[in-house]
Amino acid sequence: MIITVTLNTSIDRTLFIKDFAWNKTIRTSQNVLGMGGKAADASWVLGELGVNNLATGFAAGDTGKLMEKMLLQRGCKTDFVWVNGETRTNIVVIGENGQGQSTLVSNGLEIGNRNVDEFKTKFTTLLQKASCVLIGGSIPKGVDISFYTYLVRQAGSAGLPVVFDASGPGLKAGIEGKPTIAKPNVDEISELSGENVTTIESAYRVGTELHKKYGTMFVITLGPEGALAVLSERSYRIPVLKVPV
Amino acid sequence: MIITVTLNTSIDRTLFIKDFAWNKTIRTSQNVLGMGGKAADASWVLGELGVNNLATGFAAGDTGKLMEKMLLQRGCKTDFVWVNGETRTNIVVIGENGQGQSTLVSNGLEIGNRNVDEFKTKFTTLLQKASCVLIGGSIPKGVDISFYTYLVRQAGSAGLPVVFDASGPGLKAGIEGKPTIAKPNVDEISELSGENVTTIESAYRVGTELHKKYGTMFVITLGPEGALAVLSERSYRIPVLKVPV
What we know:
2 copies of one chain form a homodimer. Chain A is α/β, with parallel strands linked by helices. The first copy, chain A, has helices at residues 38-48, 61-73, 113-127, 147-157, 168-176, 186-193, 200-214, and strands at 2-6, 10-17, 25-27, 30-36, 53-59, 77-82, 84-85, 88-95, 100-105, 109-110, 132-136, 162-165, 181-182, 217-221, 227-230, 235-238. Chain A has 2 domains: 2-182, UDP-N-acetylmuramoyl-L-alanine:D-glutamate ligase (3-Layer(aba) Sandwich); 183-245, YefM-like fold (3-Layer(aba) Sandwich). In chain A, the strands form 3 sheets. In chain A, strands 6-5-1-11-12-13-14-15-16 form a 9-stranded mixed beta sheet, sandwiched between helices. Chain A has a 4-stranded mixed beta sheet with strand order 4-2-8-9. In chain A, a hairpin with a 4-residue loop joins strand 8 (88-95) and strand 9. In chain A, helix 4 packs parallel to helix 5. At the A-B interface, strand 2, strand 3, helix 2, strand 8 and strand 9 of A face strand 2, strand 3, helix 2, strand 8 and strand 9 of B. Strand 9 of chain A pairs parallel with strand 3 (25-27) of chain B.
């Protein structure tokens, strides 16, 4: 069974609008609720695909309950540590006239040391039934960044493949734990390596260096350029699929 | 018992941000859930004040359940007609640097004729325990605007005082039913009367005319100028209260 770990659970509410201006009532043409949090989102997709998986992490409040219900409705299993506060609702605003999109993000979970300890125990138990561990997303207030190092290491020590996807300081901490696979985008790998990765060539060079250092396979997403998978023996360029919208 | 009628129930999620720009991750400094829908919001406040009240109208989905829970937690009674779709979540974005605010509004409820009939029956029953009826907010898709005329008349025929607060075409329809009190703002009374009400003097003149026509007492809110209550015998100017924030 695949275990996904989302420390900072959230629901994404995506709104489509013509444009944003102050002091207006702005009518949304679509208002869609989706799973937030990289790892829980993976569970949601795995559930849809009928792949046996369990989502864990921290959750809170009515939004947490709704998030759990959304996962259960797709056939995922869940086992969260329930904390104070509220699972976040992030608001994704998409401009219909090609403006792009922006995300309004909030803090929500209130996590104490006791909760972290409870999660450690739960995680150890869950690893016994895991075939693969997927860890991702941001780290909530109250949890030290080094917790990602700990989690990746624990799963690795249990002999399990670990897939890791996060940004910022959390990315660095997780990579220190030597995951099997990491999926940074160009911004994230630039931050991780201290080099400005913009081309597929620089991604290959930096990815290879990082692979040597950590043993991690890096799948680097390059936006419209697709992705580059830097593995031990060889690397693969993954072109962008054309998806009818 | 005060009965409040909210046809288009909603929850308001209010986000405080420094500014809005496209293609950014924008951190919110506050993210507050409140009651939306003018009449349900009145219930929420009445509940907080310990005044016996019941909220009715149309509700749907998990957001409807959450809305109902929020009312129950404040000691309100509830008796909604449950329909398809989802009670709306309106997103109120407030600029912290004095930009003002904007509201992103959505459709959500899916109401059929059967639901409207069910509500009529419920409303007739509820009127028997009512001491006052408060009707307000927008009219959802699937409900004819004339429904406001019907509701206000039904409550008035039952000998109950009716307080009414709505915008746009719904306002006109509700006023046709001759409510006891209506609370338009200057924009709304301008639309209702076809005259451009901007000053307290013009509000008095137009309010008096409308009062003669409908018998309704108009409490016209004038923004920073406070409000003007146009009653049968006399009118009152209500200055703005200074509230420490």
